[in-house]
């Protein structure tokens, strides 16, 4: 079933291409042929940053990925210090994500595959990429996973060969809520809107009243965003009249305290439900130190532990696609060229996780 | 684990607790559950305590804790009056974050189902035929779940967190055995695991609503929790819905709405 290992081959190498949102990432990973131990050989990323007050549009983002693909790929190869002939498979993000950017990167991956003599392709689920990379980096064995980013909000636990979704956002993702609020306040998108909200929130002091929307293990963010936008409008109006009852920092502080409390709460519910005391946080919002701190406070009380990674692995990257793809490839999985499509909707629980038991 | 936390203040001064020392039963996501007694040492009770959450801003925490205890007590009281099987409220102090409830004997439905499924020889196979005769005791349980949820919804209450962990199986006074005695002790134990009256607990996220939408979401939460907790018995969930559909006049339209909820937005892949 598994691809045969030549006697002289000590490791398998995969190149991963990620571009489901505004980050174009290409990375190279090696797995020890015997132990499976992963080694990151390179991890290169280039981010499309839009001006303050705007978001990244699919068309512009796709154009960004197309224009930087070759540069980033070359850099990833150079950093890894490997020759093309050593690459076992080329992994790319099959979904979920934005259509245009996904397509651009899938074309890039196919091109590399054909160019380098039909190297097998492996289509990877973006969310599974995050989870597997998080597990590999932190060493968390069987954690409840909180996957929080600009496009996804899911609480996941592994059971019987699938990453099962216990709770998720019913409307917009938590990162989208934060990003869009950054647009309302016209905060810079560089390096990331969420990062700048986090910095601003540190100076906030007053907790304002925002809706708190947890439904079972699911949560909703659109109503909170609407209310936060209303408060921001009220603040601007008051400011023009020379009054100041609260500041942008207070708003960012309140927004973070509220939405993160919701996330920690649903994570805790899932932990209690499956009887696990490990939490792994992945996805771009997972870099937020306030979220990590709150999660640690919750886990400590339960006698558990939190596993989080830093921006190299939390934020979308090519290495996670390479890693998850290589895990699948080692079980004999490949994506034939004529099926190497991508899709905007690709649920985490659709993937058959053959590499775990 | 039982000695890790200091007792909530109420259990250190509540007079009836002096005869029976309170014990920590479980630390749920929402709070801690203690077993104690109420008024008489022969009257067991559950003390539900929501400690302050260290991760939450104190203002937000106080607001949520008080509102949730109050809402939960209100809902339980209403269920009791309407005859929905739930624990009765004995006493409460919302601001202090505690509520004293009737003690429900038995184990959670989740544990019962796992005992039942775990005892099956073909452990790796999903239960396929929904009318599999061997599954009758489990199917009966599923139907009882559907009926109880229906009764709850009829009173205009939405549970908000229906899972098989939030339902207890209160043992019957006499055991009902559908199988022949020749099946032996193991089969009897297995069957006993899924017997009993279904009692709904943990109304911490309950709301009041009679809309098809809210009822359907409530069922959907249960459906997904069931599928993720008992993947092998996923197919049997239809029996819950079938029984639910017979419980009140508007139940069939809730089931129609449930189909919409399943199809909605990001919940579901748009492919195929």
From TrEMBL, chain A:
<dbReference type="InterPro" id="IPR000905">
    <property type="entry name" value="Gcp-like_dom"/>
</dbReference>
<dbReference type="GO" id="GO:0000408">
    <property type="term" value="C:EKC/KEOPS complex"/>
</dbReference>
<dbReference type="GO" id="GO:0005737">
    <property type="term" value="C:cytoplasm"/>
</dbReference>
<keyword id="KW-0819">tRNA processing</keyword>
<feature type="binding site">
    <location>
        <position position="130"/>
    </location>
    <ligand>
        <name>a divalent metal cation</name>
    </ligand>
</feature>
<keyword id="KW-0963">Cytoplasm</keyword>
<dbReference type="GO" id="GO:0002949">
    <property type="term" value="P:tRNA threonylcarbamoyladenosine modification"/>
</dbReference>
<feature type="binding site">
    <location>
        <position position="194"/>
    </location>
    <ligand>
        <name>substrate</name>
    </ligand>
</feature>
<feature type="binding site">
    <location>
        <position position="126"/>
    </location>
    <ligand>
        <name>a divalent metal cation</name>
    </ligand>
</feature>
<keyword id="KW-0808">Transferase</keyword>
<dbReference type="InterPro" id="IPR017861">
    <property type="entry name" value="KAE1/TsaD"/>
</dbReference>
<feature type="binding site">
    <location>
        <position position="198"/>
    </location>
    <ligand>
        <name>substrate</name>
    </ligand>
</feature>
<keyword id="KW-0539">Nucleus</keyword>
<dbReference type="GO" id="GO:0046872">
    <property type="term" value="F:metal ion binding"/>
</dbReference>
<feature type="binding site">
    <location>
        <position position="288"/>
    </location>
    <ligand>
        <name>substrate</name>
    </ligand>
</feature>
<protein>
    <recommendedName>
        <fullName>N(6)-L-threonylcarbamoyladenine synthase</fullName>
        <ecNumber>2.3.1.234</ecNumber>
    </recommendedName>
</protein>
<keyword id="KW-0479">Metal-binding</keyword>
<dbReference type="GO" id="GO:0005634">
    <property type="term" value="C:nucleus"/>
</dbReference>
<dbReference type="GO" id="GO:0061711">
    <property type="term" value="F:tRNA N(6)-L-threonylcarbamoyladenine synthase activity"/>
</dbReference>
<feature type="binding site">
    <location>
        <position position="179"/>
    </location>
    <ligand>
        <name>substrate</name>
    </ligand>
</feature>
<comment type="similarity">
    <text>Belongs to the KAE1 / TsaD family.</text>
</comment>
<dbReference type="InterPro" id="IPR034680">
    <property type="entry name" value="Kae1_archaea_euk"/>
</dbReference>
TrEMBL record, chain B:
<keyword id="KW-0158">Chromosome</keyword>
<dbReference type="GO" id="GO:0004674">
    <property type="term" value="F:protein serine/threonine kinase activity"/>
</dbReference>
<keyword id="KW-0597">Phosphoprotein</keyword>
<keyword id="KW-0067">ATP-binding</keyword>
<keyword id="KW-0779">Telomere</keyword>
<dbReference type="InterPro" id="IPR008266">
    <property type="entry name" value="Tyr_kinase_AS"/>
</dbReference>
<dbReference type="GO" id="GO:0016787">
    <property type="term" value="F:hydrolase activity"/>
</dbReference>
<keyword id="KW-0963">Cytoplasm</keyword>
<dbReference type="GO" id="GO:0008033">
    <property type="term" value="P:tRNA processing"/>
</dbReference>
<keyword id="KW-0804">Transcription</keyword>
<keyword id="KW-0539">Nucleus</keyword>
<keyword id="KW-0819">tRNA processing</keyword>
<dbReference type="InterPro" id="IPR000719">
    <property type="entry name" value="Prot_kinase_dom"/>
</dbReference>
<dbReference type="GO" id="GO:0005634">
    <property type="term" value="C:nucleus"/>
</dbReference>
<keyword id="KW-0418">Kinase</keyword>
<keyword id="KW-0808">Transferase</keyword>
<comment type="function">
    <text>Component of the EKC/KEOPS complex that is required for the formation of a threonylcarbamoyl group on adenosine at position 37 (t(6)A37) in tRNAs that read codons beginning with adenine. The complex is probably involved in the transfer of the threonylcarbamoyl moiety of threonylcarbamoyl-AMP (TC-AMP) to the N6 group of A37. BUD32 has ATPase activity in the context of the EKC/KEOPS complex and likely plays a supporting role to the catalytic subunit KAE1. The EKC/KEOPS complex also promotes both telomere uncapping and telomere elongation.</text>
</comment>
<dbReference type="GO" id="GO:0070525">
    <property type="term" value="P:tRNA threonylcarbamoyladenosine metabolic process"/>
</dbReference>
<protein>
    <recommendedName>
        <fullName>EKC/KEOPS complex subunit BUD32</fullName>
        <ecNumber>2.7.11.1</ecNumber>
    </recommendedName>
</protein>
<keyword id="KW-0547">Nucleotide-binding</keyword>
<dbReference type="GO" id="GO:0005524">
    <property type="term" value="F:ATP binding"/>
</dbReference>
<keyword id="KW-0378">Hydrolase</keyword>
